[in-house]
Amino acid sequence: MKRTILSAVIALCAVIIFIPAPSGAMSLGVGATTWYAWWQPAWAEGESTGVGPGSFDWEIDPSIMAGPIISLGVTDSITLSSVLVFGKYEASTSIPAALETWSRDVTKYEIDTTLAWRVMPMVSLFAGLKFLGYRYDETHETTMGTYNGESNFDGYGPGIGGSVTLPVTGNLFASLSASFIYLINNYENKPPVGGSYSSDVTGYGGNASLSLMYLFPGYNTVISAGLRYQAIKFSQDEVIGGQFNYDGNRDHFYGVTVSAIYTFNL
Questions:
Q1: Integer Cα distance of 46 and 58 in angstroms
Q2: pLDDT in tens, 101-121
Q3: 3-state secondary structure of 99
């Protein structure tokens, strides 16, 4: 019901409104973005990861997040944009002495819808709504058998931020952007040991991105590449023993992004 990606939009809004359009004309931009990202979820380490007593660190390989971009240039300085990315991650942990292993197949997604306003030729402010979340299927293998469980984590909330775009040379530009986000989340868990658990979780954090953008004027196309980092700290009022405790834990998400946008006048 909820999910997202705000920092791609941060840089992309700067990219989109940078493409020239005739005065008073509306424009439509379409494109795609990819993100090779490392992810350290809030359950990646700690003493209450939902797999048993003690401390377990999950090994999570980096993966590719990808999806479409769409933008509407309402005026020369106001742009409404939406970006969706999703991807799959694999996580695993074990207790070799007890011959027990856990694995999680995770589907992760983020959506950002953002309204950007170019207040000066190289400076933009934006605000929007972010949705993010993930789902995973968990397998617990023991000497007594194999057990399966699942978990959902969904969140949504507002975000605000700004970006600065500076010329480097010719049609090459650099963009630096940052934002703050606040999230309302719901966590549902059906562990392999049986039973179910649901809890409300709040989170706050931010995004930061640094991009290089190249404008192809004759094709109304911008290609950008850069770095993005997102961090969220969670707060959980109700914690039940034996279930994962999000309270005070952080989610880190970072990597390399590549995007392309083609814009045409309506």
A1: 10
A2: 889 999 999 999 999 999 998
A3: coil
